[in-house]
Amino acid sequence: MRQNLRMHLILLLGLCIFVDRMQGQLIGGEEDEEEDEEEEEEESVEDETLEERLQRKNIKQDSTLTVDKLIAKYGYEAEVHHVTTEDGYILTMHRIRKQGAQPFLLQHGLVDSSAGFVVMGPNVSLAYLLADHNYDVWLGNARGNRYSRNHTTLDPDESKFWDFSWHEIGMYDLPAMIDHVLKTTGFQRLQYAGHSQGCTSFFVMCSMRPAYNDKVVLFSRKWHVFWLICNTIRQVISMQAMAPAVYAKETEDHPYIRAISLYFNSLVGSSIREMFNGEFRFLCRMTEETERLCIEAVFGIVGRNWNEFNRVMQWKTIFCCKFNLCEFQKMFPVILGHYPAGVAAKQVKHFIQIIKSGRFAPYSYSSNKNMQLYREHLPPRYNLSQVTVPTFVYYSTNDLLCHPHDVEAMCDDLGNVTGKYLVPQKEFNHMDFLWANDVRKMLYHRVLQVLGKVPEDAPQATEAVSSRNRRSHRARFPPNSR
Fold this sequence. Notes:
Elements: H1 2-22, H2 31-46, H3 50-61, H4 67-73, E1 78-84, E2 89-96, E3 102-107, H5 126-132, E4 135-139, E5 150-151, H6 166-185, E6 191-195, H7 197-208, H8 224-229, E7 239-242, H9 255-265, E8 274-275, H10 279-284, H11 288-302, E9 314-317, E10 326-329, H12 331-336, E11 343-344, H13 345-357, H14 367-374, E12 391-395, H15 404-413, E13 417-422, H16 432-435, H17 439-450, H18 467-476
Parallel strand pairs: 3-4, 3-6, 6-7, 7-12, 12-13
Antiparallel strand pairs: 1-2, 2-4, 2-5, 8-11, 9-10
Helix pairs in contact: 1-9, 1-11, 6-7
């Protein structure tokens, strides 16, 4: 069974790379330049000092740590919580604890986990930035990923365990996690941010279970001054929607969608229900060439942006250069240690359905089964006007999975959009919302402004180095790393 799954994943990867080559999107024309860069890289590695080598080794340790241990490694108070849904799935939540602070729930996207919000480390990843700005940060894990593979009665080795989509994540997982956070903290409302599927499932929840519209809160920038005077006021409700994977009409011609659809057609009669829980990492780590092909496959799906993707060994300055605080790192192996985190095949099929049909609706079965479940031949659309949580939307022009036209159409249908932010960099892609080198400067600074944590006229966070930044740097690069 495991060997068959690996062969199917090789087929899928091969299809995606073939499509990428046919589209002329590979960086082959730049190979000579890349080879020169790699030669320079090898020379720089040979010239490493002992301290630099220890720092690089310390970075690679991040690929093997669980999220709670990764959080604790950098000096934050970490907790692990387990939540049981109405239908019996046992979910793991990670917490960066700030006792008495406003709770903030972050929810990951497809094939991701809570690691997505911490993998780039302190001073960069959103979870740490929110904790630094005095939030009690909670990180959710949807059913089926590496941290939420348990059930009160079902076995994850059985197909019945994997009979779910992001519809069930919105109907059961998010409500269970929200209720747990509120019960644990004693707050009546929390703040929420989602990436990709984390937005999809949130809108499913709010449209199908509208009572949860009133359980999400944040302070918008217009309340910032008043909040500084009286920080117990909780009037303005909203959520932060990053790269919301909801409407997908413009994604229909995506060449990779065709390849993935062909892949699923090859699985007719197959017992495979789970995807991408380790085999992808195995393939990508085989050789440097397979790693490069995996990156190209990812870029072919989400959008290419080499400038913001830290694959090759390089000096990356995340602080002001005059302080000489530079990181020598290779982040892709760290990312591969946590991503992909596993997903039900039905989740992917459901996304393909909304891409092909142009309808944001529950999972569609046969016409007869749809009549039994929905009393219609096609499942009824989710009513986004029921989503009354004021929503601030963040999107980009190079996101191949969330086209700007689709995002703007979604905004027209949502019940209460308070604002939109188009990331100014034209190459910013779907995963740059989490992985970009300069994501703090290009995106999270704006998020903190919307939250009222940073004044509108404040300089970009990466333009100056605070004492906290220097402490964060020393935490990630301790002098005696082992």
